[in-house]
């Protein structure tokens, strides 16, 4: 099944002399249970693709779909709800609230949305990301890698259809980065999640099932890991 897709997606910023074609007719599919890395030089359109796919930015032409839903067909309110219910985000800055415990941070988006977390799922997520012994700690009492794992668990907790991660290991040393990537990969393998990750780092990309290379707003190459067939 397809969790999200882009079809002839183009994004143009500005006009006249400041006109920039950030994405030029990009088409790709993100399958359920697949971990995709998006790589490419600075300015190649990686963030723009993620923002368009996540409904954080509008497309200029073509379409971005989450499941069967074309994002441009939604009104603002419907889009906000879709993002809240079906999309998880992990950013480079962890965006954790310092006064809340790890567990409170993880469940905060659901608390705000007035949704009760599925306890079995939540336990599974916490176990998968390896935070069982750290739930009462506040962010300042956790390492960078543990804080990023809290951010990953927060994105997973609401059982989103797809998670977008923008350089999730950008602020971490290589050991903590490897931990977080391992947990992202586990969440794909063991929880059946779909993850799309932007990265500059070939080591980070090696954790993915599929790597999509962007240059000048186009997909110029695509690699699939030899073990990825087991997932699809
Ligand atoms: P990447 O994430 O690969 O570094 P971006 O998606 O951020 O690339 O940017 C792609 C292109 O679009 C770049 O040329 C960038 O300058 C341009 N761009 C991105 N965001 C904006 C914006 N809000 N306004 C104008 N141009 C933008
Ligand atoms: P950048 O790529 O420029 O560093 P971010 O990726 O942090 O910026 O955020 C891009 C946009 O997404 C911002 O306008 C921000 O307000 C918005 N945003 C960040 N987190 C969320 C979220 N969880 N839900 C909805 N919008 C978000």
TrEMBL record:
Classification via PROSITE patterns: ABC_TRANSPORTER_1, ABC_TRANSPORTER_2
InterPro entries: AAA+_ATPase (IPR003593), ABC_transporter-like_ATP-bd (IPR003439), ABC_transporter-like_CS (IPR017871), ABC_transpr_LolD-like (IPR015854), MacB-like_ATP-bd (IPR017911), P-loop_NTPase (IPR027417)
UniProt-listed Pfam families: ABC_tran
Domain of life where this protein originates: Bacteria
The keyword ATP-binding appears for this protein: yes
A single GO molecular function term of this UniProt record: ATP binding
Alphabetical keyword list: ATP-binding, Nucleotide-binding, Transport
SMART domains in alphabetical order: AAA (SM00382)
Domain ABC transporter: 4-232
Protein name according to UniProt: ABC transporter ATP-binding protein
Native species: Streptantibioticus parmotrematis
């Amino acid at each position: 099944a397809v969790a999200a897709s882009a079809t002839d997606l183009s994004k143009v910023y500005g006009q006249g002399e400041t006109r920039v074609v950030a994405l030029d007719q990009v088409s790709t599919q993100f399958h359920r249970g697949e971990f995709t890395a998006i790589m490419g030089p600075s300015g190649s359109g990686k963030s723009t693709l993620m923002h368009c796919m996540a409904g954080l930015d509008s497309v200029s032409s073509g379409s971005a779909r989450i499941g069967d839903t074309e994002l441009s067909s939604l009104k603002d309110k419907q889009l906000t709800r879709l993002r809240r219910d079906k999309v998880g985000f992990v950013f480079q800055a962890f965006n954790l609230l310092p006064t809340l415990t790890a567990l409170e941070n993880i469940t905060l988006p659901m608390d705000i949305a007035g949704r009760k977390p599925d306890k079995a799922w939540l336990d599974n997520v916490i176990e998968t990301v390896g935070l069982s012994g750290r739930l009462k700690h506040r962010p300042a009492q956790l390492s960078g890698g543990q804080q990023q794992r809290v951010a990953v668990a927060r994105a997973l907790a609401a059982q989103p259809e797809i998670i977008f991660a923008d350089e999730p290991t950008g602020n971490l040393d290589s050991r903590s980065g490897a931990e977080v990537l391992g947990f992202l990969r586990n969440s794909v393998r063991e929880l059946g999640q779909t993850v799309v990750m932007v990265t500059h780092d070939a080591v980070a990309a090696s954790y993915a099932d599929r790597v999509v290379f962007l240059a000048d707003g186009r997909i110029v190459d695509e690699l699939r890991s030899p073990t990825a067939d087991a997932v699809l």
